[in-house]
Amino acid sequence: MARVVVLGGGFGGLTAALELKRLLRKKAEVTVISEDDKFAFLPSLPWVAMGGRSAADITFPLRPILGKRRIAFIHEAATGVDADAAKVFTATKEAPYDYLVISTGPYLAFEDVPGLGPDRGHSESIFTLDQAERANRAWSVFLENPGPVIIGSVQGVSCFGPPYEYAFEIDVALRKKRVRHKVPMFFVTSEPYIGHFGIGGLRDSKLLMEHEFAKRDIKVVANTAVEEIVPGEVRLKDGAKVPFKLSMFAPPFRGVPVVAHLGNPKGFIPVDGNYRHMKHKNIFCVGVAVAIAPPEQTPVPTGVPKTGYMTVKMAKLAVRAIVSDITGVAPPEEIPIDVMCLMDMGDKVALMKAYPVLPPRQESEWKQGIRYRWMKIGFEKYFIWKMRHGLSGLPDDAGFSRLL
Ligand SMILES: Cc1cc2nc3c(=O)[nH]c(=O)nc-3n(C[C@H](O)[C@H](O)[C@H](O)COP(=O)(O)OP(=O)(O)OC[C@H]3O[C@@H](n4cnc5c(N)ncnc54)[C@H](O)[C@@H]3O)c2cc1C
To answer: Among residues 136, 228, 312, 315, which one has the fewest Cβ atoms lying within 10 Å of its Cβ?
Structure first.
């Protein structure tokens, strides 16, 4: 029986573990190691920050789902990976493996910009559940005495979507409360232009976003870097100073420290078309932990986003490659990954599709409207239900692609 260790219990880790067991059954002994004992549907964190979702709405415990499928669960942080000895270490255990799947997500590098982040800095963040809950408390305090809002992405960011969603949601919420006229709003980003998203834009995303920000009276400062954030003020590299009552900035991502030695200088792990490590052939890596080269060098450094949709596809491909190794069936075809994303704009949702993710693309789509909001809510409910019941084999897109 092959021993497969899966590091991480998020989008990639949970998908990989369930798929391994579904396809290999008694041929594999699967162990998940995760420092969190819950799965969190991270795409809903902006809604948590705005008070539309609670932690209970978007999380569920991992142990019962894994236990039902005879997948072992170690609820501890991995403290070391010895690729030569083929072992993962935690504070109390060591887990030897024949195959390792890494899906450890991002390390949030707040220290890259002085004053960035909620713990040791002066800006909110919505990239973990704790941060989103804290941002929600900050939002309540802000509403008692509103003032300027600044939202954006600092240099080196790769996950650009959440600040867009958060800015649009705040704009709509303030209008509903009829206090928008008291709140100057700024959107500051390292992207060369808004709508770039780290993927070189998508169709006419630049024009659409320019129009949307102008319509909503949100002032955009693109192609810029943040020098530092001090209480109540963001200082940009070009010397400009923007005051704020509420600020939220996306942090740069890096690979998490425990696997960084297997990756590039940023700790992201280079893989082949089957998500297999370039050197250690029994190690696979999926999701945010994977190294993807940007489509172009931007004047201010930016990275490529790795979305949940992409992560699930990567995990399924990696599992099929492991199944091929173990059973001798043909390996999966190395096809580029497509992406579908539903971006909340407060009063409507933008549906983005691209194949492949980076240009030049065979297909791309951008549609927006209120009906896609129902699709986004439906997708959230579907994905949480599917994973809570361990049904990783069901379609990744809830069948929505066929409706378009
Ligand atoms: C605010 C926000 C909004 C988003 N919106 C969207 C969206 O609309 N659509 C979309 O497709 N994607 C979206 N994403 C991206 C999506 O959530 C990620 O692509 C996805 O979570 C990546 O999956 P992953 O498995 O790589 O990492 P994660 O889901 O982050 O999981 C990482 C796992 O690794 C574990 N881990 C980390 N270090 C260790 C360690 N040392 N030992 C043990 N365990 C460890 C963690 O506990 C966690 O279980 C959003 C992300 C955020 C933050």
So the answer is: 228
| pLDDT of residue 398 exceeding 90 | no
Query: Is residue 293 classed as helix, strand or coil in its secondary structure?
Result: coil
For the annotated catalytic residues, the residue numbers are 159, 341
CA gap 346, 73 in Å, rounded: 38
Nearest to 195 by CA among 242, 146, 153: 153
Overall pTM surpassing 0.90 (yes/no): yes
Residues recorded for the chain: 404
Pocket test for ligand 1, best of 307, 337, 351 (most atoms within 8 A of CB): 307
Report the C-alpha gap between 372 and 189 in whole angstroms.
26
Domains defined for the chain, CATH in brackets: 2-108+253-335 (3.50.50.100), 110-250 (3.50.50.60)
Ligand 1 binding pocket mutation candidate from 104, 129, 160 (most atoms within 8 A of CB): 104
Render pLDDT for 218-245 as a digit per residue (tens, 0 to 9): 999 999 999 999 999 999 999 999 999 9
Q: Which residues of 104-129 are buried (b: 16+ CB within 10 A; e: fewer)?
A: bbbbbbbebbebbbbeebbbbbbbbb
